[in-house]
Every structure is written in structure tokens, then in C-alpha cells.
Write a structure and sequence with these properties.
The protein is α+β, with helices and mostly antiparallel strands and 250 residues long. It has 6 helices and 7 strands, in the order H-H-E-H-E-E-H-E-E-H-H-E-E.
């Protein structure tokens, strides 16, 4: 009787886990469908305008439309790339490649990729001088996480704000920080950041839309790397996101 009860309990727990995983999957599909619909609407809208008014547009007007289409296409490609990375992490197909790299060089690459987004708000992005120039980790995971955190920081920063990137290394761990002077979060918002089934998202300071998928991806990748990610924030006083990774050797 005891054995039967134990088997039944384990079966109920497995069924509960499966229901939760299916619910999480459905939420992700809805989130990603929303995130993909918006850029495709933009691409279709601007391309329709070009096709309809091309004979009447000046060269400057055509260039402006093409730039918007190009920027939207790049953002959509980045999102699709992140979806593939997340799918690999969930299926166990994502493998780590540990190598030593220059932290400042990676930061400047991220800054360059987010410059158009930051310049619209006149936001300065700085990299603190640090002795942790050379980090040993999976460079693609670090790039993906930093890109998402910096993009999020820009989204929730006010005009003329600033974002600071830094890193510290000891014998056991590497600690990366992304700090902004943005609107900050209350305790309820902080608690919801990493919860898939909350469907939680807020608009940016310029009404930028989003679903929170970037943070879910960051957590999945950092978990895969054997690290942890968390945030500290206060309403009206900005936020700091911390990424702690084991100091591995290539």
C-alpha cells in the first residue's frame, strides 16, 4: 500500500510538472507571436508605402524609409536568433565553449549595436575601468545576455540618462553589472522578472513595447552556464542587474 501511494504521488507530481511546462510553452508562443507581429507589420507598412509612392518620393524620403525597414529587419532577425538559442537551451542542445576574451571589447561591441536606440534618448553608456579585462566564459552567451540587459536599460531609462557596465573577477567567480539611472522597479515588479507564467511586461519610457522574453532568455543561458542572475532596484532610482558566472578556464 505504501509503494502504491508513493507511485501515485510521483505520477501526480509528474502530471503537474507537465501541465506547468505546457502552460509555460503556450505563454511563450503567445509572447513571441506578439513580438514578431509588430515588426512584420512595420516592414509590410513601410514597404507598401514605398511601392505606392515610389515615383513621387525624393531620394531622401526613400532613404529614410529604407533605413527604417533595415533597422526593423535587423531587430527581427536578432529576435529570431534569440528564439533559436532559447530553444536549444531548453532542449539540452546548447553546448558551452569556454574561451578567454576582452570584456571591454565585448562591451564596446554591445554599445555600438545599441547606439541607435540610445541616441534617440541621448543616453550615455559607459564601461568602467576594471582589472577584469580578460574573462573566461562562453563569449556568445555573455554577448547575448549583455545585449539584452543593455537594451532593457535603454528602454527603461529617461532621456539624458546613463548606463554603466562593469565586471569583477576573483579566483572562483566573475561578477558583471549593468546599472542604469532609469525609472526603477518596485518589489512586485522585481519578483515577476523571472516568472514565465506571469506574462509580465511594461512599456518603456518612450512607450517602447516588449514581452520580457529577453530576460527569460538571459536566465536560461546563465542557468546553463552554471551561474545566476538577479536585479536590485528602487522606484525612481534606477536598477542594477547582476550576472555571476563561475570563473572557468578554457
Amino acid at each position: 500500500m505504501i509503494g502504491t501511494h508513493t507511485d501515485l504521488t510521483e505520477r501526480m507530481e509528474m502530471e503537474s510538472d507537465l501541465r506547468r511546462l505546457n502552460a509555460d510553452k503556450d505563454i511563450f508562443i503567445r509572447m513571441l507571436g506578439h513580438d514578431l507581429r509588430n515588426p512584420f507589420n512595420t516592414l509590410i507598412g513601410f514597404s507598401d508605402l514605398l511601392l505606392e509612392h515610389l515615383p513621387h518620393y525624393t531620394l531622401e524620403e526613400i532613404e529614410e524609409q529604407v533605413q527604417l525597414i533595415n533597422q526593423t529587419s535587423k531587430r527581427t532577425f536578432d529576435l529570431l536568433d534569440q528564439i533559436l538559442i532559447w530553444a536549444k537551451s531548453q532542449s539540452g542542445q546548447l553546448t558551452l565553449t569556454i574561451e578567454t576574451f576582452d570584456f571591454k571589447a565585448i562591451c564596446h561591441e554591445i554599445i555600438q549595436s545599441t547606439e541607435p536606440q540610445a541616441s534617440r534618448k541621448n543616453i550615455r553608456i559607459n564601461v568602467l575601468d576594471t582589472a577584469a579585462d580578460n574573462l573566461s566564459a562562453d563569449i556568445n552567451i555573455v554577448k547575448t545576455v549583455l545585449r539584452n540587459l543593455v537594451s532593457n536599460a535603454v528602454k527603461y531609462s529617461l532621456s539624458n540618462g546613463s548606463i554603466t557596465l562593469s565586471a569583477e573577477v576573483d579566483q572562483e567567480r566573475c561578477l558583471i553589472k549593468v546599472t542604469d539611472t532609469g525609472i526603477g522597479m518596485n518589489e512586485e515588479s522585481l519578483a515577476r522578472l523571472w516568472t514565465v507564467n506571469s506574462s509580465y511586461s511594461t512599456k518603456g519610457t518612450n512607450n517602447e513595447a516588449g514581452t520580457g522574453f529577453g530576460l527569460q532568455l538571459c536566465k536560461a543561458l546563465i542557468d546553463k552556464h552554471g551561474g545566476c542572475i538577479w536585479a536590485e532596484s528602487e522606484v525612481g532610482h534606477g536598477s542594477t542587474f547582476f550576472v555571476s558566472l563561475p570563473n572557468q578556464q578554457p
